[in-house]
Amino acid sequence: MALSVPAIMKTTAARLSALYLLLFALCAVALVFYMTSLSARMLTAQTQETINDEVLGLARAYQRGGLPVLVRVVEARSRQPGANLYLIADANGQILTGNVQSLEPGVLETEGWTNSPFSYQRFGEGELERQRNLPADQSTTQSDQNEPQAQGEKGHNAIALVLRLPNQMIMLVGRDLGEPERFRAVIRRALMLALGMMGLGGLLIWFFVGRAALKRIDSVSEASRRIMGGDLSGRLPVTGAGDEFDRLSENLNAMLARIATLNEGLKQVSDNIAHDLKTPLTRLRNRAEATLSGKHKPTDYRQALEGTIAESDQLIKTFNAILMISRLEAGYSSENTNRVDLAEAVRDVVELYEPVAEEAGVSLETDVREAAFVNGNRELIGQALSNIVDNAIKYSTDASAQPAVRVAVERVGTDVRLSVVDNGHGIPDDGDRARATERFVRLEKSRSQPGSGLGLSLAKAVMTFHNGRLDLLPGNPGLSVVMSFPLWEDH
User: Fold this and answer.
1) Cα–Cα dist 38/46, whole Å
2) Is there a contact between 335 and 372 (Cβ–Cβ < 8 Å)?
3) Tens of pLDDT along 91-149?
4) Which residues pair with 113 in a beta bridge?
5) Are 190 and 197 in contact (CB under 8 A)?
6) What does the pLDDT look like over 175-231, one tens digit per residue?
7) What is the pTM assigned to this prediction?
8) What's the pLDDT tens digit per position in 296-324?
9) Are 28 and 188 in contact (CB under 8 A)?
């Protein structure tokens, strides 16, 4: 998708590239100027030290033989190649000897170090420059004094130490500043090259990295628009690179899957309420209508009202179970958790259902050897276990052998498993075992046993709330319902 320059600069990738480029450029400029200044100061200090050494050497020559020896030494050193400057002038500033042809005006008027770099020309450079610049027919006989001054303003730069000899003659010892200037030029070129490379690098990073990021963002935006349009089955693209975009997409996909599950659960609840609660409500209406039609004894009215209340209580329990399942599955339950001993919870539930099992002719046994602590809610665990034990007792009465239900607690690795096993017909089909934990699902075709089909659904929701797992396994014969809890860890 082609973007204009203003649109590109609104993207995060382009802004980050520009920001990093600006930051690197500022750091590079500051570093280069600092190194240039530091190097220039070091070179200036070395230059002054070199000049002082030259002055000491010339002073010793002057002490040995006076002005004639000094002039010979200056002439000898002037003919040597190098960056040093030597000059001897009279009291009026007229150059007598040395390798300097012209100076910037005013240099010889002050004694000591020059306040700032001055321009000069070496001996022989003025005539060559003049011959290059002047027309052929122009007079070549001009004042020598004016020519050095004019040419001196266009020459090299240097610093020097100016001394007055006892006979009022002037001696200048200096050094050319061409090396520091060339160093600064090299640094400037390096700076421009570095800035150019950083600019090119920023463009390449944007082209290869930023455009790829923009394409991925566009694909995420396109998938988001489809999802916002109502297609909750859509998912954000994951390339498998494992980067931030993939992690974000994976988390959003997990969130979308969770939302889709909750929406599907809501839809199922609505459908189940419409189908499964229609029968008890119709029964209530028919009972009330039958009671109102005709004449009945007071005891008949009382029985009808008691039946209506019992039916209403069952409906209220069903709605409460639905609300509890929804809260637990959504993770918004206000129930508190703490350390719970599953062994003690099993003993309490078994003690509660022993009379029911004895009345139904079912042997209810426990296999609890030691305490097993988990992090959970005692009431929720007890309610889920009660539903499972109640189902096991009801559906084990049609066993060919002596009906029996066994409740056991054992530790397996980092889990605590609470299992309820009966010897009834069980659920042979794997698909039916998977459907058994859905709301209002009752695999019994005759519906001869009481219930609403919410017991295992509530147990599954309780296990989800406890970060555990509910498994329905074949008991050979019968059914084994296993509740797996994470083991309590002392902190």
Assistant:
1) 12
2) no
3) 888 888 888 888 888 888 888 888 788 888 887 665 555 555 555 455 444 444 444 44
4) 161
5) no
6) 888 776 777 778 778 777 877 787 787 777 767 766 677 777 777 788 888 777 777
7) 0.47
8) 788 888 888 888 888 788 778 777 777 77
9) no
Distance CA 407, CA 363 (A): 11
From the centroid of its chain, how far is CA 268? 39
3-state secondary structure of 373: strand
Cβ contact 17:205 at 8 Å: yes
How deeply is 410 buried, as exposed, middle or buried, from its count of CB atoms within 10 A (0-12, 13-18, 19+)? Answer: middle
Alpha carbon of residue 63 to chain centroid: 77
Q: Which single residue is written with the structure tokens 């190194």? A: 35
CA distance 44 to 307: 111
The strand pairing partners of 95, in sequence order, are: 89
User: What token pair was written down for 445?
Assistant: 């075709």
One-letter identity of residue 54: E
Q: Are 126 and 95 in contact (CB under 8 A)?
A: no
Residue 150's Cβ-side half-sphere holds a number of Cα atoms within 13 Å equal to 11
Please name the amino acid found at residue 285.
R
Beta bridge partners of 471: 482
Measured distance CA(446)–CA(463) in Å, rounded: 29
Residue-level length of the chain: 491
Q: Which of 72, 117, 115 is nearest to 96 (CA)?
A: 72
Q: State how beta strands 404-412 and 363-368 pair.
A: parallel
Burial of 170 (0-12, 13-18, 19+ CB in 10 A): buried
The beta-carbon contacts of 305-312 under 8 Å, at least 24 apart in sequence, are 308/284, 311/280, 311/283, 311/284, 311/287, 312/284
Output the six-digit token pair for 70. Answer: 């000094």
Q: What angle do CA 300, 306, 307 make, to 5 degrees?
A: 90
φ/ψ of residue 402, rounded to 5: -65, 120
The Cα 178–Cα 198 span in angstroms is: 30
Q: Is 405 left (phi over 0), alpha (psi -120 to 50) or beta?
A: beta
Distance CA 292, CA 302 (A): 12
Torsion region of 93: left, alpha or beta (phi above 0 gives left; psi -120 to 50 gives alpha): left
Measure the CA–CA gap between 325 and 329, rounded to whole angstroms.
6
* For residue 450, cis peptide bond before it (omega within 30 degrees of 0): no
Residue 177 one-letter amino acid: L
